[in-house]
Design goal:
It is a single chain. This protein has 342 residues and is an alpha+beta fold. It has 11 helices and 14 strands. The strands form 2 sheets. An 8-stranded mixed sheet has the order 1-4-5-6-7-8-9-10. Strands 11-2-3-12-13-14 form a 6-stranded antiparallel sheet, with helices on one face. A hairpin with a 4-residue loop joins β2 and β3. α3 crosses α6, α4 packs across α5 and α8 packs antiparallel against α9. It is globular and about 50 Å long. 51% of the residues are buried.
Length: 342
């Protein structure tokens, strides 16, 4: 996986990101243009027009993200509207994408672990990058993202980590913060509490589950275009989630197109319950290799009917500001590396 190191002002960070990952960004744009055309019947011009509906909000309240996106555009030589569309791709799809992911947070007296398998279409695997950001007056960030997208899954120098579960539900609110920029806002925070306050105040524009944690533990934020419902850690300090709502969201219409989301949630719950003496990163890594109910298991595999598979696994030890990333399906990964350059 390509590593992209950035630093400076928001525009400078974006410019370096765009310049160093231009090849991956352009491939990602082709991937999403084809995907939107197939799933939503929208041309890329129409996709960009929809994305621009977020600009009044972003210019007014999140101009630093606009500057960074503009930097990515300039650095990569790709139109600004296309980079913006990448960053709000969840919202434009109106919950039509089926990223099948399994995530967990586990806090004990001795450790705080945050982990996830991120499942998506295998064609996009070559466009994943490790993005390292050194920024002014905010924590440094080390994350895995799709090239061109400025917020995704990882941790920061304050020990705050974030994971994402896609949820398929109708509705988008252009006066709320897009999902991937909400992830970035978490990674720009100095604590889980600060991140939660920011997300609650801003709202999230579409359906998703954001799992945010720090050395003091984790909390789940089930988001829709109309509300945010918290999932506090249970008595054992655990939060688990897959790709459906586990809390009630009045007025929200959910469409569960991944029946295995329910079975994966049940399975990760059973696996966690076998470690009564508390977690280790090794134990959590083993859980995320689980293949019960293969191929739609926690460690997901591509099939003739679906090109979705686990593209990477990340296990973060937030009290040590350290993470191990396994590229591909963790049962037979081609590459493993550590995130700790914060």
């Amino acid at each position: 996986m390509k590593t992209v190191r950035c630093g400076g002002s928001p525009f400078e960070i974006g410019f370096q990101h765009g310049q160093l990952a231009a090849t991956q960004i352009k491939r990602a744009l082709v991937f999403y243009e084809n995907l939107f055309k197939r799933l939503t019947k929208l041309s890329w011009k129409e996709v960009c027009r929809e994305a621009s509906r977020f600009m009044p909000l972003l210019q007014e309240r999140w101009s630093h993200y606009v500057d960074e996106i503009r930097g990515v555009s300039t650095g990569s030589g790709v139109p600004f509207e296309s980079i913006l569309a990448l960053n709000v791709r969840t919202e434009i799809a109106y919950g039509m994408f089926n990223d099948g992911c399994t995530a967990l947070s586990w806090k004990t007296d001795s450790v705080s672990i945050l982990a996830q398998n991120w499942d998506w279409q295998t064609e996009q695997a070559e466009n994943l990058i490790r993005l390292q950001i050194r920024q002014q007056s905010k924590p440094n960030i080390d994350m895995i993202t799709e090239a061109g997208i400025i917020g995704k899954i990882g941790l920061n120098s304050a020990g705050v980590g974030v994971c994402l579960n896609a949820i398929r539900a109708k509705g988008v609110n252009f006066d709320r913060l897009p999902c991937h920029l909400a992830l970035r806002a978490c990674l720009d925070s100095h604590s889980r509490i600060e991140a939660t306050k920011i997300i609650r105040a801003a709202g999230v524009a579409s359906s998703c589950h954001i799992l945010v944690a720090d050395p003091t533990g984790g909390v789940g934020l089930e988001c829709s275009n109309v509300d945010i419902v918290e999932l506090p850690a249970n008595i054992d300090g655990i939060v688990i989630h897959t790709n459906h709502y586990v809390k009630h969201h009045p007025g929200v219409t959910e469409r569960i197109d991944l029946p295995d989301s329910v079975t994966r949630l049940d399975r990760i719950g059973k696996l966690v319950s076998t470690y009564r003496n508390g977690p280790t990163t090794t134990a959590v890594s083993q859980m995320l290799k689980d293949e019960q109910n293969y191929p739609v298991s926690i460690c997901r595999a591509q099939t003739e009917k679906s090109t979705t598979a686990t593209l990477f696994c990340i296990v973060m030890k937030l009290d040590e500001k350290h993470a191990v990333v396994t590229v591909g399906r963790p049962v037979h990964s081609a590459e493993t590396f550590v995130l700790n350059e914060l």
